[in-house]
Amino acid sequence: MSKSQAQPAHLPIVRDTAALRRALGVWRAAGESVGLIPTMGGLHEGHLTLIRRAKAECARAVATIFVNPRQFDRKEDLESYPRDEARDAAALTAVGCDLLFAPPVEEMYPPGFAAKVSVAGLTEVLDGLHRPGHFDGVATVVCKLLLQALPDRAYFGEKDFQQLTVVTRMVRDLELPVVIRPVETVRESDGLAMASRNWHLTVEQRRRAPLLSKVLMETAHALAGGRAAAAPLLMEARLRLGRGGFTKVDYVELRAADDLAALERADRPARVLGAAWLGATRLIDNVAVPEAE
Ligand code: AMP
User: Fold this and answer.
1) Is residue 47 one of the residues assigned to a domain?
2) What pTM value is reported for the model?
């Protein structure tokens, strides 16, 4: 089959719930399963890996692009967020995405919109402490997207591990009829986790950025199998990031993989999570602690 036959000529784009449901209704009537991939655009290989996974597991892959104002705690971050729908649509077409839902803000939050989905506990640690309101914004928009599309499966990256945990808990608690599929973090060849915000890094900052993943991986290995106390290793990790040119370290922590409880040792499945700044750009990353070595 030639390339042009294997891919749609262009990607259908819908901008409101009614059009989204019409398109999905046709597929459902034909017995086709649907995978949903929520994004904020600025697509890179990490996002495209989620789409490919959806295509491998579902008959249809539906991407969403919505730069959700409610999950931004800094105005300048929202304003500078990369937006290039034509470029994103071309990338989605190339990986065989079937439909793009790209609603305007008024479609998601019409005048008078007052609902809020909040997942207690999980959102009061890590990024929840450093980005007030962020996870309420995430939970609200993801809940709405899941109800708009009612997909069979929805795909989320482990890159945003706390977000994945919050979404998984929300779906469980509200019994939303969807299976959440986690997808491993996709990295650059030097270990840096791919992220749309990496595009803001200067050449010098980009050179320093892989230290975050390196430090998290080395710390996770030192904690493997619960053999070492976490506190001194986490302290050393924070100091290394500071010495390596990170201008501010929000946290480096050891947390349980299921409920994000703080751990003194990795004596149950755990992740090391970190957030640190290079100038005006905030990077986050996390790695699994090996169970034993
Ligand atoms: P975003 O557009 O940043 O909101 O991300 C949309 C989805 O892509 C989220 O589920 C992210 O966790 C996921 N994602 C972003 N970067 C990566 C990456 N480097 N590897 C895997 N998934 C990612």
Assistant:
1) yes
2) 0.96
